[in-house]
Amino acid sequence: MLESMRTTAEEPILTQPHLHSSKKESVNREVNNNLAGFVLPGYSTFPQIGLFSYVKKNFSGISKATLVRICTIVLLSIGAFGVYILQSDFEKIHTERMNSFWGLTLIVITTSLLLYRIIFFLYHLFLYLGYKPIQSVSDDQLPTCTVIVPAYNEGKQVWQTLLSLADSNFPEKKLQLIAIDDGSKDDTWYWIKKAKEQLGDRLEIYQQPKNKGKRHALYHGFKLATGEIFVTVDSDSIVKPDTLRNLVSPFITNENCGAVAGNVHVLNKAKAIIPKMLNVSFIYNFEFMRSAQSKLGSVLCTPGALAAYRKGAVLDCLPNWINQTFMGQPSDIGEDRAMTNMILQQGYEVLFQKNAIVLTNVPETYKGLYKMFIRWERSNVRENIEMAQFIFKKFRNGSKTGTRLLFLNQWLNIITVYPFIILMMIFVLTHPLMFLSSTLFSIIMLSSFPVIFYAKKYNVKGSVWAYSYSILYAFGLFWVTPYSIATVKKGGWLTRDLPKKK
Predict the structure, then answer these.
(1) How many domains does the chain have?
(2) Start and end of every Glycosyltransferase 2-like domain (predicted)?
């Protein structure tokens, strides 16, 4: 029936685009009539209205977000069903591999990696269950604090960021606010001056004559800072009233604390589908992964959106940080990961505060998303190379085993990228249906914990985005890491060149 529909209905539309409108309507009616009686799983036939009209009538009012969630569930169901009906084919391939040397070697390696992943996850879970954020200390105990906000082409958002910081539940006399315009080409400087008009002496503002990059803007701020603790906040972020005091409290309770990572949520999650996905991913990566790392005193990256540093720790590494190079080129990316590395190397602990929440804007388009990930992955490779220079030395007192395991896990993720890409391409070319179904089924298995984690802490409806994000990454962003490794020498902010709306 479907074959007859292609020849009788679709072909005239493709081969005769110049048809008169009345003839086009006649052809469309023929298509719709041919689809009448077509059966969808779980539905009765549509003898009168046809499939096209049914879809238009029943799905036109559904939002894009709901439609994506529905498609996600359908795809995963197809994947699970595909694995079920292709069981004999999977068993055949497994048997063939067991009977060959290279096949058996592949099975041993992949099984070992899977077992390692399970053990490493359980290790993270154990650490997470023992994590508790430090509660805020009293006003008298709070240290003096300098908050630095670098801004480039941020427009009005920087004004909102500065006002949210000024509204913090933090003693005014202990808080220094610094905003630095890094040579913006839009109206960012206007909005910084607008904030200055409202906040008066509470805010110090500076404008760099030309754009030199976020690292240089922060360096300018560090040189001007007078507080005992330096806090960096991205200019597209909003902090909650108790965020600052929660963020800096660990420096009072732990003398060996050199840096603290804030808890990053997504600010623009209501505006597009990609931010909805990223919000679930961020919450899992911060509230689960960084909580576990914090138990080891070894959070590997303090995020640019919100981080705090002990003044002495920053000043001790500031010359190396601002002059850092990679393969002979000045480093203009990964300033947050680089600072974290240098503070860990000094022997300090780096912690995470779940109760120090910041909401930040993330890319809303696929292009913006992959450019952000490329920058992150390049920085990750670079800083893992830097970390290798001290991680197996006596860089601090106490146990270092957990920190070294985190480091080795980072490298395992990097060195297995290309072998798995090659195996994936072979699998796609030789068994496309099996690849599709097994990948979707793997997403169900691997993403269910983030789904459960988010559903328990927030809501069930939003948790489905963890599955959607995994599908997007598996089929649309799998190339980012191998590309980033191959082009690791390249710098550039990438997303800075994207046009911004005023």
Answers:
(1) 2
(2) 146-314
